[in-house]
């Protein structure tokens, strides 16, 4: 009887660990996807601002050289 109870307890513990591992994996994948999306959006915004700043600086430089 004791062996049966021990085996049953072991099966329940293993099942619980597998479910927790799967939940942790799901959370990890979701976190990775979110951080990747944030990183890409930040990169795109920074690139856009950089290009706009560069273009504005070139325009001012051209305007100043036309005046001289």
What does this structure look like?
- It is a single chain.
- The protein has about 70 residues and is mainly α.
- It contains one helix and no strands.
- The protein starts with a helix and ends with a helix.
Short description:
By secondary structure, the chain is mainly α. The chain has one helix and no strands.
Q: Helices and strands: which structural class?
A: mainly alpha
pLDDT averaged over residues: 88
Count the beta strands: 0
SSE order: H
Rg to the nearest angstrom? 29 Å
Stretches where pLDDT is under 50 for at least 5 consecutive residues are none
* CA(first)-CA(last) distance: 101 Å
- Percent strand equals under 5%
Give the SSE map.
Elements: H1 2-67
């Amino acid at each position: 009887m004791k062996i049966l109870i021990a085996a049953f307890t072991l099966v329940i513990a293993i099942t619980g660990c597998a479910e927790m591992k799967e939940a942790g994996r799901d959370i990890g994948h979701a976190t990775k996807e979110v951080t990747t999306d944030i990183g890409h959006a930040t990169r795109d915004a920074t690139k856009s601002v950089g290009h706009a700043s560069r273009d504005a600086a070139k325009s001012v430089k051209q305007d100043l050289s036309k005046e001289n």
